[in-house]
Structure formats: C-alpha cells, structure tokens
Design goal:
With about 400 residues, the chain is α/β, with parallel strands linked by helices. The strands form two sheets. The protein has a seven-stranded parallel sheet. The chain is globular. The chain starts with a strand and ends with a helix.
C-alpha cells in the first residue's frame, strides 16, 4: 500500500475540487492510503473526513488565481515555515508520494523535491494568459517549475496538455512528453447513484410545470462561463414560450443576469436557483443541458447531465469538443454564436424523438468514457508507475 499525500487548493465546491473528491471516493483503499491537506475548509474537506481519510486544513498560498488582500500578503510570509513543516511531516509519516491537484499550489511540490519524494501535478486548467491571472510569475516559468518538479503530470484533456506544452522551450518538450498523461475527468455519480431519482417528484419540488421543456445551465456566473450568451440565445429562440430555463449557481455576474432577465421580459421562462451541492434533483428535471463557456478544460456539468440521458448543447471549446459527439449526442456551437445556439435549441424542441435518441446515445458515451470507477483506476495506475 502506497502512502499518498493529496493537496487541494480548496475544500469548497468546484470543478477541480469535485474531481479530487470523486477520485478519493472511488480509489482502491488496498493500494493507496490517502492523507489530505486542503488550503481552505469546506464541504469537500468535510466529506474526506467522513470517509475516514486523515485530513486537515493548511492555508497554502496560491501563486495563481489568488484574491489580492492584506491577508494574502501576510500568508506569504509563512511559506518557508510551512515548507519546513511539510518536509517534517513527509518524513515523519513516511509519505511515498505527494499529489497536488492544481498548479495554483507550489509548496507541496517544493517540500517533496527537498525531501526526495516523487510528486504529481494534476492540471485541470487551460494555462492561457487570460485564464490564469493574477499570478506571481510568467506562465512559461510556472510550467517549467511544474515540469521539473513532477514525476508525472496529469491533464484532463489533450487540448489542455497541448497548451501547457507550448509554454515550454523545445529542449524541455521531450521530458514533458515522457511525464505527461491524459485522464479525462469523470462524473461524480455512477449509474447506480441515479437509482430512486424521480423526475416528476423533482419537478414538483422545484415547482416546474409539467408541460415545459427544461433547459439547464449549471455553473458559476462568471465571464468565462458566459451566462449572458445563453440569455442572448434565449431571446432569439422561436420556441422560447415552451421552455423553462434554469440557471443554477452563483458568482459575480448574477446581478447582471438578473437585470437582463428583467429587461428582456424573460422572468416567465428563466429562473435562477442557488448552487446545489447535490445537483441530481435538478438534473432529473431537465430535457436539455447547455454550457456556454469561452474556455473549458473539461465540462463536468455536461458529463453529469449526460449520464442521466440528457442531450447537450455547448460551445466548441476544449473539453466539450471531446465530451460531445457533434450531431450525435448533442451539438457544438462556436463561442458567442448566440444565433446558432438558438437554432440548435429550437431543433431539439421541434424533434422530441430525435432529442430522446440523442439523450440515450449521450448516456452510453458518458458511461463508456467518463465512468468514475474507471477514472480512479487510470489515475491509480499512473501513481503505480512512480517508484519512491
């Protein structure tokens, strides 16, 4: 059994955090003994503790995507002491491998290197300049650090891997390719997790009329997730009177979204619901699921809707372009092309039998490619490649 320390940048709910949580849920406990350190407390940190995993909160500094504040500056002063403590901990507990769930953290990688312990980075982000601000150093420097301080680097898509590789000089790319692996993320839920979920009961719970076609938009109200593009598409739909569009989540753009709904007189067909830790009761109400991101390394919501047999419409970006088989399990549309997005939604409404057929094909594709048990096994096999 290999003792592995997992470092998470947050114990809160989010895409990368859910992926770590899913792996911890489905890992083979006879092969891996996990410890977990989270940079913040939250429901996923609590979930690890409930599973009996030895966990605690360590306030690591982020060197990308941090929130500038006086507290953040003060926390940087503690970095040398945390690294020394981590080195002591790794030796004391005889940890054989350190696994960092995002390139936003660096202290675990340094501590592992200084103690001679193998380290793995799992990169869920697309490392483009506009996506990774603020940060301390250039992305080229940060990617060199990731490459040099890792025994393996796991990416969630080939597209994310290609973007990272482009940041390195030619002389580094051979080493990078040897260390890199691609493991697509998985649904948080296996097929049996949907047993007992009832569509009609869920619709009654959320007060959704039985004659409405429900379109789900689930995510963070942010520029990258681009909820305003979905609203623009709704205004262009010919069959919008037949739908109920559920926006589920929170974030900085929620006020702007509410204002657009009011100004465009969409209140009868658009509803904003708060973030749900367990999203299944909302997914089962849906007939369609959409994702409108300008960049997306994966697209967990597509997988989780798809495993329930819901067809998908999404922007043609990194992750969704692999999850969706265009014209078979759903449709892909260019970023910010609200006109075409509306056309695809109208087509789904006009041809319900074709929509249902797409949904079944979606479910089969998700079960084949994004099963959480298979995903956990692939990651464990990568960890087994590494010898202390």
């Amino acid at each position: 059994m290999k003792k592995v320390l997992f470092l998470g940048h947050s114990g809160l709910s989010g895409g990368a955090e859910y992926c770590l949580d899913t792996f911890l849920r489905f890992l083979d406990s006879e092969r891996i003994m996990p410890w977990c350190f989270f940079a913040t407390d939250g429901p996923l940190a609590e979930a690890a503790k409930k599973r009996g995993i030895l966990s605690q909160v360590i306030t690591f500094s982020w060197w990308m995507l941090y929130t500038p504040s006086l507290w953040e500056w003060k926390n940087r002063l503690k970095i040398p002491f945390r690294i020394l403590w981590l080195m002591y901990f790794l030796r004391r507990e005889k940890i054989e491998l350190v696994y960092t769930n995002t390139p936003c953290l660096f202290e675990g990688a340094l501590a592992a290197w200084l103690t001679g312990i193998p380290h793995v980075y799992h990169i869920h982000e697309v490392l483009r300049d506009e996506n990774m601000r603020p940060r301390w150093f250039s992305l080229n420097f940060l990617m060199k650090f990731v490459c040099r301080r890792s025994s393996r680097i796991i990416f969630v898509s080939e597209a994310a891997k290609e973007v990272a590789c482009a940041l390195l000089p030619e002389s580094w790319k051979g080493e990078f390719q040897k260390k890199s692996r691609v493991v697509w993320n998985a649904s948080r839920f296996s097929s049996r997790d949907w047993e007992g979920m009832n569509r009609e009961n869920s619709r009654q719970r959320w007060e959704i009329p039985s004659d409405k076609i429900v379109i789900l938009w689930i995510g963070r109200f942010s520029r990258r997730k681009n909820p305003k593009m979905f609203l623009e598409a709704i205004t262009k739909m010919r069959h919008k009177s037949q739908v109920m569009c559920l926006f589920v989540g929170d974030g900085p753009l929620i006020g702007e979204v509410q204002e657009i709904i009011k100004n465009e007189n969409l209140s009868e067909i658009c509803r904003i619901l708060p973030f749900q830790e367990d999203i299944r009761s909302l997914i089962v109400t849906g007939d369609l699921a959409v994702l409108t991101s300008t960049e997306e390394s994966f697209g967990l919501v597509l997988v989780e809707a798809g495993i329930y047999g819901i067809p998908l419409v999404a922007t043609r970006v990194e992750g969704p372009s692999y999850i969706i088989k265009d014209g078979v399990t759903g449709f892909l549309v260019d970023v910010n092309d609200a006109e075409t997005f509306a056309e695809k939604l109208d087509w789904m409404i006009e041809f319900p039998s074709a929509r249902q057929e797409m949904g079944e094909k979606t479910r089969q594709r998700i079960l084949t490619l994004f099963d959480p048990v298979k995903n956990a096994s692939e990651i464990m096999n990568i960890l087994d490649e590494i010898h202390s």
